[in-house]
Structures are given as C-alpha cells and as structure tokens.
Amino acid sequence: MDCRVALGMIEAKADGLLPREAEGELAAHLAGCPACAAEDAAISATGPALRALAGIRAMEKRPALDAMWTRVRAGIEEGRAARRRPSWIARWAWIPVAAALAVLALLFYPAGTDRSPFHPSSFDVAVEDVESDVATVALVDKGEDLPRVIWIIEDAKT
Amino acid sequence: MPRRKPKARLVGPTLPFLALLLALLAAVPCEAADTVSVDVGAIYASNEGTSIDPALGTIRGKLRSMFNYTSYRMLDRKRRSLSVGETGEFDLPGQRTMRATPLPSQGDKVRLSIQISEGPRMLLTTTLGLRRGGMVLVGGPSHQAGVLILIISAE
Fold it and tell me: What's the pTM value of the predicted model, to 2 decimals?
C-alpha cells in the first residue's frame, strides 16, 4: 500500500469513516511502515486531547454560562408575569359592577320578604282580648322562656 | 423604581366604593319611632318527615319542645312597616288573610290588633301587647296534612 493512501485511511479512521474491510489492510501497512504508524499514533491521540481541552474550557466558562442562563430565565419569567398581570382598569373593574349590583339589589329586593332567621328578644306578650266566630281559641302559656301561643281549634280538627 | 405597597394599592380604589356604599345606606329610609315593623312567618307543622327549616333560627328548639310535630317548614314570611292606625294585610297559605293594625302605646311597648280570616269566616280577633322585638305564636288552622303556625313579631 502506498503511504499516501495509508495517510488518507489513517485520517478516515480517526474520523470514524474507515470501512471495516479496509482496517486489516491499513493494519498490515502500519506494521511494516514506522512513519505511518507514528502518524497514526499521533492522530489517534489528538481526539481525546481535544475532548479533554473542550471539557476544561467548558468548566472554566460554567459560572459565566450559569449567570447568563439565570438572566435569560429571569427575563422569560418577567415577561410571563407582565402578560398575566391585568391592567389597573381590569383589576378594579369589579368595583363599579359590584356597586351597580348592590344598587339593583337594594332597588328590587322584595321588601316584604325576609329569610333571615327569627331571633326574638322577648316572649313577654299581653293578650288583651281574644275571640273567634267559628272556632274555639285557647291561650297556651308554657313559661317565660317559651313564646305564648294562641291556638285556634276548628271543629276539633286540630 | 420603588414599588407601591399592596395595602396602599388596595385602599386607594376601595375608598370611592366605601363612600358609595355609605351613601346608599344613608339613602335607605330609617324606620321612624312611631312605626311598627310587623313580621309574620307562616310555618307548616306536620308529621311528614323530620326536617326543621333553618330559617326558623333560635325558635326551632322551642317549637319542638312546645308541639308534637316532627317537621316545621316556613312557607312564607312577610314584613311590613306600619304606622299607628295603619292596617297591613298579609296573605297566608290556604286562602287566609291576616290584618294587623298597630294601636297607640307607650314606651317600648307595641300594641297590635290582629284579625285572621278565611274567606268570610273570622278565625281570630285579638289585641296583643308586646315589647319591641317580642314574639307570639298563633296556630291551629289546618293546612294539608298538618297545621299552620304563625310567628308574629313586632319591632
């Protein structure tokens, strides 16, 4: 094999492009050619050296890269927050709406109807007179802490 | 740039709202001392079920201890502000009507003339003397499978 062809195959091997069937042919040439063998050894050592160097550079730049990524992330978050934050008008728009609803409730609330629970303050009631045209009426008094009851008895139904 | 404190941001826009609310409350007419607010609740008492209407408030337990019914449901409740001598009419369940007229009284007492009728039939005519905030029950008229109990209070 010609040394020029061998050098091309050595470079192809370093790049991982050498066909498997050519590997034996190259190995046979390298065994008999110290100059090509030395070139192969030198080129084979270059790859790991470059990778190590790249790793070292990356380690050196890591703090700067971290800081840059932090700034980028903060910028993204701020942009999102600005989009989420409603404007002053949108934030307080509920106030006039609530006021309008309160006014409507006051205007249209049925004044004669009340569903608030009964909370009487006194059961002190004087019954001055009581009568019925069609029923018997009984006055029931079960004590000061219970309301007085006027009971209408219609035809002994109740 | 210094940011405004959240409290300051809240107070600023809330003040006009509070002012509006106060103006509305001031616009609601207050009850004069010579008017009586008559409150009438119509309760359907029966032995159908065991539910007691929460709207009955503190008198739920009293109703249970006074009557033998298992269920108390408020069918209707109406409140009227009446001047002395003014008659207010309250429609009751079962084509019945209650008429209430505040009568002249002294101090914190309220006197009420009450008439309950069922069509042409006068079921009850009574005159009551209550303290403001006082309450009396009128019961007995049959209604569906039970009876009607009226809670009458005056303030």
Answer: 0.55
